[in-house]
Amino acid sequence: MQGDDGGTLVADAPGIDHEFKVGYITRVEGEGSLSLRVRDGAVVEARLRIFEAPRYFERLVVGRTGDEVVDIVARICGICPIAYQMTAVHAFEDLYGIEIDPSVRALRRLLYCGEYIQSHALHVYLLHAPDYLGYPSALAMAVDHRAVVEQGLALKRTGNQLIAALGGRPVHPISVRVGGFSKAPRRSDLDGVRAALDAAVEQSLATVRLVATWDPPALEHPQPLVALRHEAEYPYNDGRIVSTDGLDLAPGAWREAFEEHHLEGSNALHARTHDGRVYLLGPTARIALAADRLHPLAAEALEATGLRDAIRTNIHRSIVARAVELLHACAEARDIIDGYRPPSEPKVAFTPRAGVAAWSTEAPRGLLHHRYEVDEQGHVTHAQIVPPTSQNQGAIEADLAAFAPAVLGLPHAEATHQLEMLIRAYDPCISCATHFLDLRIQDERSGKGT
Amino acid sequence: MVTDERMPYAPYPAPTGTAVAAPPIPVASPNGSGPWFLARANLGVLIDTLREDGRTVIGPKVMDGAVVYGEIRSVDELPAGIGDEQSPGHYGLTKGRHRRIFDYAVGPLSPKRWTFPPVVPLNVGRRDGKAVSFEPAPIDPPALAFLGVRACEVAALGIQDRVFLGGPYTDEDYRARRRNALVIAVNCTTAASTCFCTSMGTGPEVRGGYDIALTELDEGFLLRAGTPEGADLVARMPVRGADAGQLFRAAEAVGKVAATMGDPVPTSGLHDRLLAQFDSPRWAKIAERCLSCANCTMVCPTCFCSSVTQRSDLDGEVSTSERVWDFCFTAGFAKVAGGNFRSRPRDRYRQWLTHKFATWVDQFGTFGCVGCGRCIAWCPVGIDIRAELLAIAPPLAVWPETGRPRPVAATPGSYATARIVSVRNETADVTTLTLGDVDAAFLAGEFGQFAMVTVPAFPPVPISISRFGRDTIDLTIRAAGPATASIIGLGPRDEIGIRGPLGTSWPIERAMGHDVVIVTGGIGLAPLRPLLDGLLAQRDRFDSIRLYYGARTPADHLYREELRRWAARGDIDVQLTVDRSSPDWTGPVGVVTHLFDRATWDGSRSLAFVCGPERMMEATVEALEGRGLTPDRIFVTLERHMECGIGLCGHCQTGGLFVCRDGPVFSLTQLGGIFGREGI
Amino acid sequence: MPAVAARPRLRVGIVKMASCDGCQLTLLDLEDELLALASRFEIVEFPEASSLRSAGPYDVLLVEGSISTPDQAAEIVELRRQAKLLVTIGACASYGGIQALRNWSSHDVFRAAVYAHPEYVESLATATPVSEHVKVDAELHGCPISPEQLREVLVSVAVGRRPQIREESVCLECKRLGTVCVMVARGMPCLGPVTQSGCGALCPTFGRGCYGCFGPREQANAASLARTFELEGREGEEVSRLFAGFTGWAGPFRSVIGDFGGPPGMTSGATSPITATTATTATTEGAGDAG
């Protein structure tokens, strides 16, 4: 982690700056604020400040075993705990040379499907949709659009049901263990959720169609994209790290292409490519880099929207990408359950060994990377956890800088809303990021700060 | 009043004095039939038949490392070739004998889970304006058949029958569930090291309370039917009569199990011993280990406590009530608005143990424990109640405990024989005979019991047993009539007929931790001598001991050598008196009550044991009451004309009591207005 | 007696300190009930899910997260003034959470281990439960909390009765379900007997020992359970790590951790936990007061 001034778009700026601030961004996970500094219609400095309190997870896991790490890192995020558990468990299994049973691997993917369903339904319906329909919250939205909200809640419930069937409870599930699961479900344990998934497929298809009709704010700003890509499946647990710039790395080899910096005024470690560029992770990147691995139902729905290219260039269209992934997760989950046979043993024994346990998986919000240095007893001596939202900070700031000029002329409340909406399009998971993004817009010409 | 043969236990009787009722004995079933033999390959027919009758079979199966009860659809689900190994805090499955299904002892679950389920809906309450209504939940239990119920579990069902059905208020949900469940019991052919049903008198053999009872042999199962339903089932199965060899092997297998268990929890006097230890420091020691986690109560097949929960809508207008398992170890169990009656873990443990082994007897007439040992195995920190009971309330170990056998020759026509070993003249007309070659039942008799003694041509007479030796007993007899005269005229190697030991005994366990006052006159010391033996053998268990003994003259004191020895010990206060002095007598003269007229001891911490002529006893009791003893702590022994000693000849009746059977030792509370009354 | 129809809705706020959001999410996980709750509760502050803000007053304020920064320490005092009923939700707010394990170590070492420029990072020397700063009216335990218990608290407030949160060990939930004890039958260390119920005995039902995320139950005899773990052959840190989890800062667990050498990964030199009172002197700025 080298100190580096990466990422903020600061230009030399004589004259007066116009400052634009939003004190607390709502309907994102975690706590953030933003401010922009603008001069002559160009953004001089863009910082999204997330004042989430640091909890020091990378230090808390020192001295712990793989199984303990799996339990602990889940608590980095209440919305995407499974992403953390998966990344950690695959990292340790990779280091210890553990071959998991194919049924167990199927269960891992199934669990991840559950998280995608739950997380994306939460974001699309409860956090993002109110922006499109003009409400301050989903609860307010339910007064006029009850059926829409109920559809979202139904999808979220199915996701939670699936996670609970495999992991005990939807938040911080308990069954993921190094080597497999503490208990594998019988086929009959999945009957309930299997029935719910039929409805979920229909509901998520309806979701794709619905969100495709919503007009987003205009923005043409393609960014470098990074995601995992797997030879056979849509990327969740496994895949090589690829990018629109031709990158191709093993899932544990993140630091060969990227690095973290600690900037002043932030608890956040910004991530950059080695040559200092920002990059974008998440549904947008996955659709761009791995759409050919989508479930046929999802691929078909994506085609029908005609928005495949628009997703690539306007971050607001991520809601469509998320809806497509929602459909994919429902359909794949259904297929996995239909083909599921319980493993003979839910988990295999192993012997810890010293070395580096490193892995990346695709969390709903984008590529998540863990790297643990481990001693001979299997205790962690050093940890690096790189969440997707912290990696996206640079891209968020870049998008804000590109988008802001269009809204600065609007009344403050409306401008705030538009900028928040842009940030929400990233579905940022700020507790994960434990970072400060400081977005301040200062208009140097008018001299006013807001 | 329950009369169904499957629930043969009558409502609990009122407690009778200090005796602990034996475990419930079922009403004799006219349909008891068998034994039959079912080949192993045909066990599936039993399961299929039950299921065809629309019953769900709840039987043993292996799950998550234990043998639990669950729905059994086919024979293949039964735990063939599985055994178990249990010790405090540990349970593990082992390899059982090949193909044997019942080679495990007991698992963490018991039929209680179905007869007294963890969660049962009670009612739905509604409020509509000012009116409220409560709609009880319908009772519609499924038709079940329990397969593999052990004797301890059958006894537990009987115990819960008493709790839920035997009192003035009944639980109809429980009744319906019991009615709808067949019991297919199994005689144990194996026991875990944690089992102690032999001590509690509940097993290993099933005695009643079953529809069918099985005993497993290598080649199949011995079957008995206990009810019409059971007999009907057996009739539909491919059985044949069992042969003698099979009967023998079955009995031998069960007998072996009983022998391996021994008697780790002596229950004689346990009720009193335990209640005397309410302030024992041992409770605090247990509390250092006990987690108050309530596991012991949940695996226990008789624990019956519960709480009622409400789940209401947001307006509080519709509320569902449920009964859920809840036990005395949880924090809120004894909480009220002002505080918590049992906030300390040590108090909760004490509540559980004393309820199970003492106050349950007062409430329901039996112990609450059936000796299944689950609480020992499933305690996470391995607290073993057998060890704790011995530590807190050990039995008085005068002689090795051999259990509590029934009296010998206890039918009107029979007598056992004993041989006189030695004769000793105590006084001019009182002789002590020491008998050998006596049945072991006599050696295990209790202090205060008596024997019916006879020789041919003379009527039988009741004689107190005045000492229990290692392999002899003493009878101290006064020549009062021809029968007694002829008996004391016998010499060594002569034989006599005896029946016994009979009657109730001095409640020595209740005296533990208390002061003891013994007041006696003349030959009355004879039935009290075993009590003194017991008190002195564990002197430190009792506080002060005072013996007040009066006789007509100094020559009429019994056991004079022993009296001197006792007085010389220094830890027992021996005071003698005579009605008429003699030249070498330097002690007090007067009635025995004068010995403690001006004494200063505090009667409120004392128990008194009194024996002598009835006038003397009456005066003594009056004096004792004047010193602060209450009737429940004063014990007397009565003498009446007896011809059988077993409550069948009717001679010894006094009021509603048979002195031979309900006495001869009584507390004054028991006697009530009878004591001291003329002509009763 | 509750009146009909137009009674005012109770004003509810949901705020977050240092936490993962999982407990707030449990409110959203009430799903269908959520819309019904809206008829009795007006959620006036819930930044995670609503852009409508309110600084108070609140009839019920649900607080998630431990107090980990000077700002939070000040903020919670003000929030307490605004709230009629303050209910902490979750292990972080009620016990300090997993991040409280750093209270056994040097704060500076922790900061430096994660951030290249620790001077940029403002946090208190300790992560502490809300109750160490202000008076708390009720606590919901769990990591995360149980949706059923949350529902019960809200319904109780609406109806006016005391919430029925059972005070019992996880063992009761296990045995009511018929789950076989993983400790007795499989030798897995399990904190169930000393842990507050509420999760439905999830971990034993899924074949692993309880790790105590609902915190110690009343009068938890954690020391006895720790001794039993020792008798099974574990030593020192192997015992303390079992209790050094998401509620390790809670009294009975904290004592065991201390008795057995501290949590794993503790920085050398810090053998006893730092308390809140010493915490306030070790940070970049002044910190909040215990309220």
What is the fold's blueprint, element by element?
The complex is a heterotrimer of chains A (450), B (680) and C (291).
Chain A: E1 18-22, E2 32-39, E3 42-50, H1 57-60, H2 66-74, H3 81-95, H4 102-133, H5 138-144, H6 146-167, E4 176-177, E5 180-181, H7 191-212, E6 226-229, E7 240-243, E8 248-249, E9 258-262, E10 269-273, H8 283-290, H9 296-305, H10 308-313, H11 318-338, E11 355-363, E12 366-374, E13 380-386, H12 388-403, H13 412-425, H14 430-433, E14 441-443
Antiparallel strand pairs in A: 1-2, 1-14, 2-3, 4-5, 6-7, 7-8, 9-10, 11-12, 12-13
Chain B: E1 33-39, H1 43-52, E2 56-63, E3 66-71, E4 82-87, E5 90-95, H2 112-115, E6 119-128, E7 131-136, E8 144-150, H3 151-165, H4 172-179, E9 181-187, H5 197-200, E10 212-216, E11 220-225, H6 228-235, E12 240-241, H7 244-261, H8 270-275, H9 282-289, H10 295-299, E13 306-312, E14 318-325, E15 335-336, E16 339-340, H11 345-364, H12 374-377, H13 385-392, E17 416-425, E18 430-436, H14 440-443, E19 450-454, E20 461-468, E21 473-478, H15 482-488, E22 495-502, E23 515-521, H16 525-537, E24 545-551, H17 560-569, E25 573-578, E26 606-611, H18 614-626, E27 634-637, E28 653-654, E29 657-658, H19 659-662, E30 665-667, H20 668-671
Parallel strand pairs in B: 2-8, 8-9, 9-10, 23-24, 23-26, 24-25, 26-27
Antiparallel strand pairs in B: 1-11, 1-12, 2-3, 4-5, 6-7, 6-14, 10-11, 13-14, 15-16, 17-18, 17-22, 18-21, 19-20, 19-22, 20-21, 27-30, 28-29
Helix pairs in contact in B: 9-11
Chain C: E1 10-16, H1 22-28, H2 32-37, E2 41-45, E3 58-64, H3 70-82, E4 83-89, H4 91-95, H5 107-114, E5 138-140, H6 147-159, H7 170-177, H8 182-186, H9 202-205, H10 222-231, H11 237-243, H12 251-259, H13 276-279
Parallel strand pairs in C: 1-2, 1-3, 3-4, 4-5
Helix pairs in contact in C: 11-12
